[in-house]
């Protein structure tokens, strides 16, 4: 597929793009910062500028596309990961403005140009737990896509707004638009670097619902979305199968979630951030775990 990928130079995007390139896709990275991966086309774009977004999505990806003399090829899909990635990096209103306006511009241009697949990055923060003031517990465990999304911070608010925006564009056009509620992205080197601390202090993982997603498996998830047609508008939790701490599910419940409703009998190390929907509808099968490195 010919794919425009926004924000591909970020922590999550660069691993996802590398996976897509390995799968044989052609990828243009639309970002303010170049990405040093062989085979990736680059385009510097300010996504808050609607004109730049529209032009980027209707432009050549590389010089080789000039040779056939048949005009600009159409992108098969857009993957939109670009965003201010959390609170406390820019003023709250600027985080909100950039994240919501850029997503609107991408969806508006993609649908008007007849691109029939958009995958966009939403967030675990939409459930209101990650950046809560004080401790906020989920309504039930494990958290699935039916859990309420009522956050209190500007970043998570922007992600909820983006989900509503995406649903509205899908209702108007009928194309496939899939939102990924991505959990805490972990790069391979971070297992040795960070996880021993999590094992000593599991409370550090409370705001991430004791879950994580390996950056390589996130790339697999994006590819699953690109290969699955006909679902319309859907949102998916994205997480690995196990916990990000080295205690059991029952121990986590006893220490942190005691008394909460449990939706189903959980496995010994099962994630509290359910990925069942992604497995069932997309064929998502995460392959990586901290246990491969630290056990």
TrEMBL record:
This is Nucleoside-diphosphate-sugar epimerase. It comes from Saccharospirillum salsuginis. It comes from the Bacteria. Pfam families: Epimerase (PF01370). Residues 3-190 form the NAD-dependent epimerase/dehydratase domain.
């Amino acid at each position: 597929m010919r794919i425009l990928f926004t924000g591909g130079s970020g922590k999550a995007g660069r691993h996802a793009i590398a996976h897509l390139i390995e799968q044989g896709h052609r990828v243009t990275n639309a970002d303010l910062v170049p990405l040093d991966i062989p085979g990736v086309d680059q385009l510097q774009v300010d996504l808050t500028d609607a004109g730049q977004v529209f032009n980027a999505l209707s432009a050549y990806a590389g010089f080789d596309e000039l040779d056939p003399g048949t005009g600009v090829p159409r992108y098969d899909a857009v993957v939109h990961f670009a965003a201010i990635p959390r609170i406390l990096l820019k003023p709250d209103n600027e985080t909100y403005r950039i994240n919501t306006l850029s997503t609107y511009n991408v969806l508006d241009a993609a649908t008007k140009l007849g691109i029939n697949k958009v995958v966009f990055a939403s967030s675990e923060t939409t459930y209101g737990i990650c950046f809560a003031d004080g401790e906020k517990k989920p309504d039930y465990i494990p958290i699935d896509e039916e859990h309420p999304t009522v956050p209190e911070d500007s970043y998570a608010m922007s992600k909820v707004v983006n989900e509503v925006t995406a649903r509205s564009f899908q209702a108007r056009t009928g194309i496939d638009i899939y939102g990924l509620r991505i959990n805490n992205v972990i790069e391979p080197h971070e297992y040795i670097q960070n996880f021993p601390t999590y094992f000593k202090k599991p409370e550090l993982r409370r705001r991430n619902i004791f879950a994580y997603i390996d950056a390589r498996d996130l790339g697999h998830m994006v590819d699953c979305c690109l290969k699955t047609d006909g679902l319309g508008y859907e949102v998916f939790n994205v997480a690995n199968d196990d916990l990000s701490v080295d205690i059991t599910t029952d121990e986590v419940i006893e220490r942190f979630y005691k008394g909460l409703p449990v939706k189903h009998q959980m496995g010994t190390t099962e994630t509290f951030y359910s990925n069942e929907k992604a497995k069932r509808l997309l064929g998502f099968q995460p392959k990586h775990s901290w246990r491969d490195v630290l056990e």
